[in-house]
């Protein structure tokens, strides 16, 4: 049996729907850490399925370092305007801009392989996959540029 407290904890930790959290907790027999791993695995599988879908909506995000010597401009795409306008999607764009400003990847492939600057146990690709699972939509980094004086 899955408790409401367990569901709440898993939902807050992952941002995944309550229904998916409940399924993961049942499969993990109530073990929160195991449920997180199950959701992570499902998220990767889901992201692979979504990758062929068109992502024609999105936002252009920017970041300017406080010293005003490093700046980033990023085009991040998703499938719907609803997701593009969401606070979570805009937070993802900001996180990606910070990553690009900090680590200066030459291209998207290199960016995906980098450890995420806020949690080095996760790659940027895994960060993206978690958002694909959260939104249920394909998300693409269309292009980015980093500027430095």
UniProtKB/TrEMBL annotation:
Keywords: Coiled coil, Cytoplasm, Elongation factor, Protein biosynthesis
Stretches assigned to coiled coil: 18-45
Any single GO CC term annotated in Swiss-Prot or TrEMBL for this entry: cytoplasm
GO molecular function: translation elongation factor activity
Span list, region Involved in Mg(2+) ion dislocation from EF-Tu: 80-83
Family statement drawn from the similarity comment of this UniProt entry: Belongs to the EF-Ts family.
PANTHER family: ELONGATION FACTOR TS, ELONGATION FACTOR TS, MITOCHONDRIAL
Function: Associates with the EF-Tu.GDP complex and induces the exchange of GDP to GTP. It remains bound to the aminoacyl-tRNA.EF-Tu.GTP complex up to the GTP hydrolysis stage on the ribosome.
Protein name (Swiss-Prot/TrEMBL): Elongation factor Ts
Gene label: tsf
């Amino acid at each position: 049996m899955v408790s409401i407290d367990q569901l709440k904890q898993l939902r807050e930790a992952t941002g995944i729907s309550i229904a998916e959290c409940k399924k993961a907790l049942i499969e993990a027999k109530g073990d929160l850490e195991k449920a997180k791993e199950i959701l992570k695995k499902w998220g990767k599988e889901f992201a692979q399925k979504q990758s062929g879908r068109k992502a024609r909506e999105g936002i252009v995000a920017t970041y300017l370092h406080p010293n005003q010597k490093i700046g980033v401009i990023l085009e991040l795409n998703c499938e719907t305007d609803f997701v593009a306008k969401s606070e979570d999607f805009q937070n993802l764009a900001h996180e990606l801009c910070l990553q690009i400003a900090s680590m200066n990847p030459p291209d998207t492939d290199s960016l995906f392989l980098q450890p995420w600057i806020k949690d080095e146990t996760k790659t940027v690709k895994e960060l993206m996959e978690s958002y694909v699972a959260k939104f249920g939509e394909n998300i693409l980094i269309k292009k980015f540029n980093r500027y430095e004086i």
